[in-house]
Amino acid sequence: MLTKRIVPCLDIKNGRTVKGVNFVDLRDAGDPVVLAKQYADLGADELVFLDIAATLENRRTMHDMVLKVAEQVNIPFTVGGGISSIEDVDALLHCGADKVSINSSAVKRPELINELSQKFGSQCVVVAIDAKQVDDEWIVHLAGGTIPTDIRLFDWAKEVEKRGAGEILFTSMNHDGTKGGFANEALAHLSDLVNIPIIASGGAGTIQHFVDTFKEGKADAALAASVFHFGEIPILELKEELKKQDIPVRL
User: Fold this and answer.
1) What are the residues facing 49 on neighbouring strands?
2) Would you say the C-alpha torsion 161, 165, 167, 172 has a positive or negative sign?
3) Does residue 156 lie within any of the structural domains?
4) 3-state DSSP assignment of residue 153
5) Range of the structural domain that residue 170 is part of
6) Is residue 21 part of a domain?
């Protein structure tokens, strides 16, 4: 069985790491370069760096910040925010990113997934999906969760897999920042629906929530932010507990 991955997420705005609840009410969580090194040293399996304002501000991801973070870590590093072309991805990979995460740009022009996977390999392409449960339907949202679409989560997940995505990063907007647990029912359905890894995001508050998302949600990786940024859950302690619960992890 493949080991389950623990993935701290650095949401960046104005050069700082920030964290909110349900995608709003952002507060400062520290220097992303310092945090990145800290997580790499403390046993994180991967890092995700999201320039959360890039799409809204119609600009590219901050390459200098990516370069600084990449210099500090020796674990896989995914970058997202404002990516809409082969040239954008090429530049980020040259700055040290291992993978890229695309979201709004993929919904607006799905062919981008095909182009990136053909050029760089599917292992390089993570499609992030921000979705909100509305009247029992999971609806895909764009631009940092600010724009609802008429696209259903599960339909879109099947399409991105067919187009060549290597992983799906699913964030439940209903659960984001609430610390009430991951959207395990939706995650389990996603896992049954597609054959690529699913990264769970939104809702981590306790070690048990990670146990549940691996066992009940069938997630391949679990992403979290505030519980790591503010020292509520030490990564090593989390992994040791997961191992006790017979969940395979890298220690």
Assistant:
1) 10, 79
2) negative
3) yes
4) helix
5) 5-244
6) yes
Contacts of 187 (CB under 8 A, 6+ apart): 170, 198, 200, 213, 217, 218, 219
- In sequence order, the β-bridge partners of residue 142 are 147
- Tell me the per-residue pLDDT of 44-73, one tens digit each, with 9 for 90 and over: 999 998 875 654 455 455 788 888 888 889
pLDDT tens digits, one per residue of 111-159: 999 999 999 999 999 999 999 999 889 999 987 778 899 999 999 999 9
Concerning whether 11 is annotated as a catalytic residue, the answer is yes
Residue 72, in any domain of the structure: yes
Total domains present in the chain: 1
Which residue in the list 45, 130, 212, 220 is annotated as catalytic?
130
Task: Check if the beta carbon of residue 214 is closer than 8 Å to that of residue 223.
Answer: no
Active site residue 130: yes
Strand (E) or helix (H) holding 169: strand 167-172
Residues 6+ apart with CB under 8 A from 250: 3, 5, 43, 45, 239
DSSP conformational letter for 171: E
Amino acid identity, position 204: A
Tokens standing for residue 205: 């508050």
Residue identified by tokens 């890298």 is 250
Cα dihedral 164, 39, 203, 3 sign = positive
Residue 47, both tokens: 């890092």
Q: Are 149 and 130 in contact (CB under 8 A)?
A: no
Q: What is the dihedral of CA 244, 2, 156, 105, to 10 degrees?
A: 100
